[in-house]
Amino acid sequence: MDDRIETALRRAFPGRDVDSVAPAGISWNEKNTTVRVEFADGEVVYLKVAHDHGVRIARESAVVAYVGTHTDVPVPTILSSEADGTVPYLATAPVSGQILVEPWGNATESERDSLAYETGAALARVHALRFDDHGLITGGDASQLELETGSWTDVLVETIDHTRGLATTDRFDHYFDEVVAAVEENRRLLDDAPAALVHGDLAQPNCFRLDDRIGFLDWEIAHVGDPARDLYRAKKQQFNVFRTDPPEGGVEALFDGYRSVAGGLPEGYDDRRPIYEAVWFLIVPGYFDKFVADYDEDPEELAEWMKGEMGLLLDRITT
């Protein structure tokens, strides 16, 4: 337990005796630390501590309260939060049900399709929360979110810069510049996108199943953006495949679940998807060293494959 975690625990739970502090899971986000805390009386909480400023804590606290009030999508229970303190933190209770990776791991193909369907339906319920403008969320509460508004193009570039800031290597930083240039060249297409609340990071560890519903965790990069991009990201993240395509049946189940609530895929999904494919792929150059280590890849072979893939993706945007 480092000094920042100890400080946050004293602020959030004064006078409580701590029995253990352990990592909450694997994360590539080095700007936060999230731990599982067990108190001497047996109560368990999860504590997220920011290592820089508190805007992501303020955002997550506001969005969790807002989603919990305006949808039936399950969200964590916030026990304590402080975004403006010396150590910004967010403390939440353990969620009911299972983190999605648990039922997914032992599921049959048809059971996985059912889980994907439920996830798509839950995401559509979040996307039903619409706004007049796109923007970055800076705070708010259960009744209203505070936005730093801007065109969707500008907000999208901000999210790309966020990914660049989290990147663990700058060896391939030029790819970020090339994708940003392609995004800005397509302002007319992008700025017509709907303005919806989007999660932004729907990997399976950020989803949980409660009875027959899927809920979402970790809202710190949520924003008001294009639901088509969020759905495309969910398609990639839910199936956690690398250098292969997600299973067709699972993707169709995810989309069918979305359609069951929204009546169809997000407006303009097919038109803007090529842009979001290139934006999504930036995780590979950004976290190149992680992919080499986690997938036991030859660095130079991976770099050559990445160069070819990025060229194809950028060509699709301009043709």
Report on this structure.
The chain is an alpha+beta fold. It has two domains: 3-92, 2-Layer Sandwich (Phosphorylase Kinase, domain 1); 98-318, Aminoglycoside 3'-phosphotransferase, Chain: A, domain 2 (Alpha-Beta Complex), CATH 3.90.1200. 48% of the residues lie in helices and 18% in strands. It is built from 13 helices and twelve strands. The chain has helices at residues 3-12, 55-70, 101-105, 109-127, 152-166, 173-184, 187-190, 227-239, 248-262, 269-281, 283-286, 288-294, 299-318, and strands spanning 18-23, 32-39, 44-50, 78-82, 89-92, 98-99, 135-140, 145-149, 196-198, 207-210, 213-216, 223-225. A five-stranded antiparallel beta sheet has the order 1-2-3-5-4, with helices on both faces. A hairpin with a 4-residue loop joins β2 and β3. α4 (109-127) packs antiparallel against α8, α4 packs parallel to α9 and α5 (152-166) packs antiparallel against α6. The chain is globular, with a radius of gyration of 20 Å.
Short structural summary:
The protein is built from 13 helices and 12 strands.
Query: What's the total number of strands?
Result: 12
Tally of individual helices? 13
List the helices and strands in order.
HEEEHEEEHHEEHHHEEEEHHHHHH
CATH topology of the largest domain: Aminoglycoside 3'-phosphotransferase, Chain: A, domain 2
Mean pLDDT: 95
SSE inventory with pairings:
Blueprint: H1 3-12, E1 18-23, E2 32-39, E3 44-50, H2 55-70, E4 78-82, E5 89-92, E6 98-99, H3 101-105, H4 109-127, E7 135-140, E8 145-149, H5 152-166, H6 173-184, H7 187-190, E9 196-198, E10 207-210, E11 213-216, E12 223-225, H8 227-239, H9 248-262, H10 269-281, H11 283-286, H12 288-294, H13 299-318
Antiparallel strand pairs: 1-2, 2-3, 3-5, 4-5, 6-10, 7-8, 7-12, 9-12, 10-11
Helix pairs in contact: 4-8, 4-9, 5-6, 6-13, 8-10, 10-13
